[in-house]
């Protein structure tokens, strides 16, 4: 038995907000977990402070599965992004502690490495097609094997997923949401042209990916997938919202372009139909928003039965703690597909010192005991919380999307 002696929540904003849970044990060993929910950060901080931490004190930190079940089943209110991010933070911190006690990196506790390294995809985005492809060439020069391409849509002022900064991508940009305008016909015309030019200029070796950010109806998504077939994408992501999982049947019936979904999913129930009916090829659920390593393993095991591979979300609003946990998971899980990688800012890297690293298109979790990541609390204290939201999108006639 190794007793949980104390736990606290640290909120910091080194360029963007992060919520971190730090659990301390009676043996003096501590663990960290990420609890960041973009644009709703303080709701998770309160959930942990007011409702979870009091129930953890005195429990055996080794009982990861039991604590997961206790927090999930015991609360009566199940699922949802706030609850599942809070449970995930506890789960990550407990795996970190177990690894430190065992003096092993977490991937060893998960059954050891199933592969040599973790293939990641980088982000190339620009306001014009030329800028996007120039970015892609620079990623290829850095050794990336897989690149996501997002480009501004001609005629639209701004496009979600296209960064204002050349190197760092941060879509949460205002203390009251920015409102942007969207045109589906303009978008549907621009994407095939981008990928046609990409194959001409970048060749066929590199894996190319694209994120629709839930902007299409199922039949529009089917059309886009079919238009993109000649360019052999690695995946087309979040082609339509998956609130209704059956919606993907229409897309599937209309294209052989591989489909990815699930960065907003919180539990195995959000992807059960998509996986069991083989309506997607990659599941994007993360360690952070889908209940921690413990629950993501369960999702991956279900996915494995149906030839669905993992493709964890890894945007900058997931802290280096999640990135570390994801890499241990990715290295160990048999049906790994790819991992998203967006570089954090230097300030963020300084607040979260870590052992993971990138080399020639692949990442490695490192050999440090536990997750191999920590929070520098003195550095974190220099960056107080700043409210920030993702933009809200409207159609050209001013209405909100209705799908
Ligand atoms: C995106 C993210 O990384 C992705 O695939 O969809 O940028 C996402 O929009 C943000 O992480 C939202 O918090
Ligand atoms: Mg996405």
Encode the helix/strand succession as letters: EEEHHHHEHEEHEHEHEHEHEHEHEEHE
How much of the residues is beta strand, in percent?
15-25%
- Measured between the Cα atoms of the first and last residue, the distance is 50 Å
Oligomer: single chain
Shape field: globular
* Rounded Rg: 21 Å
What structural category arises from helix and sheet content? alpha/beta
Bound molecules: D-mannonic acid, magnesium ion
Tell how many strands the DSSP assignment holds. Answer: 15
Unreliable spans: none
Round the mean pLDDT to the nearest integer and report it. Answer: 96
Describe the structure in your own words:
The structure is a single chain. The protein has 403 residues and is α/β, with parallel strands linked by helices. Helix content is 37%, strand content 17%. It is built from 13 helices and 15 strands. Strands 4, 5, 7, 8, 9, 10, 11, 12, 13 and 14 form a ten-stranded mixed beta sheet that branches. Helix 9 links the parallel strand 9 and strand 10. The longest helix is centred in the N-terminal third of the chain and has 22 residues. It starts with a strand and ends in an 8-residue tail after the last strand. The model has no long low-confidence stretch (mean pLDDT 96). It binds D-mannonic acid and magnesium ion. The site of D-mannonic acid (CS2) has 10 residues, from loops.
Spell out the key features of this protein:
alpha/beta; 403 residues; 37% helix; binds D-mannonic acid; binds magnesium ion; ten-stranded mixed beta sheet; 13 helices; three-stranded antiparallel beta sheet; globular
């Amino acid at each position: 038995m190794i007793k949980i002696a104390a736990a606290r929540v640290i909120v910091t904003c080194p360029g963007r907000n992060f919520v971190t849970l730090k659990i301390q044990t009676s043996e003096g060993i501590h663990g960290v977990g990420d609890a960041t929910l973009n644009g709703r950060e303080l709701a998770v901080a309160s959930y942990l402070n007011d409702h979870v931490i009091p129930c953890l004190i005195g429990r055996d930190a080794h009982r990861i599965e039991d604590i997961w079940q206790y927090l999930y089943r015991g609360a009566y209110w199940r699922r949802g992004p706030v609850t599942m991010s809070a449970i995930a933070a506890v789960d990550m911190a407990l795996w970190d502690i177990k690894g430190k006690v065992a003096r092993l990196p977490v991937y060893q506790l998960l059954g050891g490495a199933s592969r040599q390294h973790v293939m990641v995809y980088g982000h190339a985005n620009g306001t014009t097609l030329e800028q996007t492809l120039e970015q892609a060439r620079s990623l290829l020069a850095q050794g990336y094997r897989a690149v996501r391409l997002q480009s501004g849509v001609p005629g639209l002022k701004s496009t979600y997923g296209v960064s204002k900064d050349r190197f760092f991508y941060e879509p949460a940009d205002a203390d009251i949401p920015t409102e942007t305008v969207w045109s589906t016909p303009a978008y549907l015309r621009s994407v095939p042209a981008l990928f046609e030019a990409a194959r001409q200029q970048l060749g066929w070796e590199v894996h190319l990916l694209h994120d629709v950010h839930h902007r299409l109806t199922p039949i529009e998504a089917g059309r886009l997938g079919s238009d993109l077939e000649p360019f052999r994408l690695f995946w087309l992501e979040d082609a339509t919202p998956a609130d209704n999982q059956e919606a993907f049947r229409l897309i599937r019936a209309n294209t052989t372009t591989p489909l990815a979904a699930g960065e907003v999913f919180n539990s195995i129930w959000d992807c059960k139909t998509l996986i069991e009916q083989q309506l997607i090829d990659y599941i994007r659920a993360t360690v952070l928003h889908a209940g921690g390593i413990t629950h993501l393993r369960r999702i991956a095991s279900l996915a494995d039965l149906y030839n669905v591979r993992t493709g964890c979300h890894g945007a900058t609003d997931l802290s280096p703690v999640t990135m570390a946990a994801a890499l241990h998971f990715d290295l160990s899980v048999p049906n790994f597909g790819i991992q998203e990688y967006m570089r954090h800012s230097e300030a963020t890297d300084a607040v979260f010192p870590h052992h993971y690293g990138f080399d020639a298109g692949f990442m490695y979790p490192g050999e440090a005991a536990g997750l191999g990541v920590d929070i520098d609390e003195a550095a974190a204290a220099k960056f107080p919380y700043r409210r920030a939201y993702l933009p809200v999108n409207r159609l050209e006639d001013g209405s909100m999307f209705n799908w």
